[in-house]
Write a structure and sequence with these properties.
The protein is of the alpha/beta class. It has 9 helices and 7 strands. The protein has one domain: Rossmann fold, CATH 3.40.50.1110. The strands form 2 sheets. A 5-stranded parallel beta sheet has the order 4-3-5-6-7, with helices on both faces. Helix 7 links the parallel strand 6 and strand 7.
Length: 234
């Protein structure tokens, strides 16, 4: 009788490894892989400026979506701040990034460099420094996804930051640099610039400040970013 109980206990323990966990109505197999430590680096677009709730920022949406689909991941750092440039990232975000001991990262930066008149050369130099630093802390150098800068010029208040310049043309130039540097390193890049143009004709995609994206726009970005990140992490 004692042997039967022991045997039954082992059978239950063995079977429990294969019991799916239920999340958002979907059955997912519990992962025994080490936790992925995600750090999101950027500016207002990464911290979710314009969204009503903090969990409406796309890095949080991305993390939750990945979790719900069986990826063992946690958002361990998002030191992004509204108004910050690539130099702010270097001075203030990278130290936080280093301390978070990340194994995966995203980078969306550059809009404030353009707004503040930072030269193309300086932006390019800073971007390279940031990418190389982010990669230097990752065990897998390919676990970094870049995201392009959206076109804020289509928003109701965007034009006031033009100062006689063509916003779309300027941001496209910065985005071209982002794409080139990603390609050089074999990194994935998600181009949200085209979808951001929808903010022009759809006021519900713009925050009440008339400048930043609304939660609905951030959700659209996350839908584009998610499959790319899922592929990278797999």
């Amino acid at each position: 009788m004692f042997m039967d109980v022991v045997l039954l206990t082992h059978i239950i323990s063995f079977a429990s490894v294969f019991i799916p966990c239920q999340n958002t109505g979907k059955h997912k197999i519990m992962s025994n892989k080490p936790e992925i430590r995600y750090a999101a680096i950027g500016d207002s677009y990464t911290i979710g400026e314009g969204a009503i709730e903090p969990d409406e920022a796309w890095p949080t949406l991305l993390t939750n979506n990945l979790k719900n689909n069986g990826v063992n991941i946690s958002l361990v750092a998002n030191p992004s701040k509204t108004g910050w440039t690539t130099q702010n990232v270097i001075d203030l975000e990278l130290p936080v990034y280093d301390q978070s001991n990340p194994t995966f990262a995203t980078l969306l930066i550059g809009v404030n460099d353009w707004v503040q008149g930072v030269s193309v050369e300086t932006f390019h130099k800073n971007l390279n420094f940031i990418i190389e630093h982010l990669q230097s802390k990752l065990q897998n150098k390919k676990n970094l996804v870049l995201v392009t800068i959206p076109d804020f010029g289509v928003t109701p208040s965007g034009g006031q930051y033009a100062r006689g310049r063509d916003i779309s043309q300027g941001l496209t130039g910065f985005n071209d640099i982002i794409k080139v540097e990603a390609k050089k390193r074999g990194l994935e890049v998600v181009d949200i610039f085209p979808v951001s143009l929808g903010m022009k004709d759809h006021p519900e995609l713009v925050a009440t400040d008339g400048l930043h994206p609304s939660a609905k726009e951030y959700a659209l970005w996350e839908k584009m970013i998610y499959p790319v990140v899922k592929k990278v992490l797999e």
